[in-house]
Task: structure prediction
Amino acid sequence: MGRFRALAPFLLAVLVALGATVFIYRWLQTKVSQPVVTAPSEDRINLAYAGLDLAWGTKLTPEMIKIVAIPKNVAPSGHFTDSAALVGRVLVYPVKQNEAITESKLAPVSVTTGGVCAVIAPGKRAIAVAGDKVIGLSGFIQPGNFVDILATLKLPESDREYVTKVVLEDVLVLATGTQMQNSADGKPAPVDVFTVQVSPEEAERLSLAATNGKLHFALRNTTDRETVYTLGTTISDALDAYRPRMKPVQEDLQTRTVSGEPRSASKSAPREKPRQAYEVQTIKGSKVGKETF
Result:
């Protein structure tokens, strides 16, 4: 009897633990089996997304579009709910995979042809120039970049003197070679043709420079839209760069004797009235200086 009384608390603890275990297990089972509460179907809409990365100038096909149901209150402005409304439209901006296709990324409905012609801004023209590894910065110039175009030409008044001058600034690169988007692996690759967007007047200037001289591209920062005016650089200007400037030493003969000793104040000749100095600003290439006469 005494032994049973000693085991009673232990057995009671086991029964309580077993009952708690069964209760927790059943509670978890009910939570797992409980269906997830979702928004009513009337609060969700279908939205057209890009099924893969799409470059600007791409003409959309059904295989490029996927439809996903999303809550109505998060749908972006200008969205599409049916892929049929997008088939045949042309992109004017690149779209990444799983990004919503909206009206702002598309050309007008009247534009039915893809390619470069679909992304040229109104009033602009696309013109191609020959390139190589040097002009394309070994492939680091990609579609969508902005460049300055420099031309090295002969001076009109000389058959031997050349000048290098920026002839176009802030020019948009539409395509490199036959590609209108960066390579899939992101590695630079040299191309032999660059297609840029210019105005009709700029197209004339670029064509003349490409025909009569050699072109170079200078890659710009994507946020730098400032126009810089230059005078151009000749061979003489290039050779004159970083050359030390020698200051002429003039001996005042009126105040010094032949032996180098200063003359006395009583014997010194009257000083000449100082002449008026003129200051002229000089510009050589990108260097700005001042000369006093």
Remarks:
- Confidence is low (pLDDT under 50) at residues 34-40, 251-255.
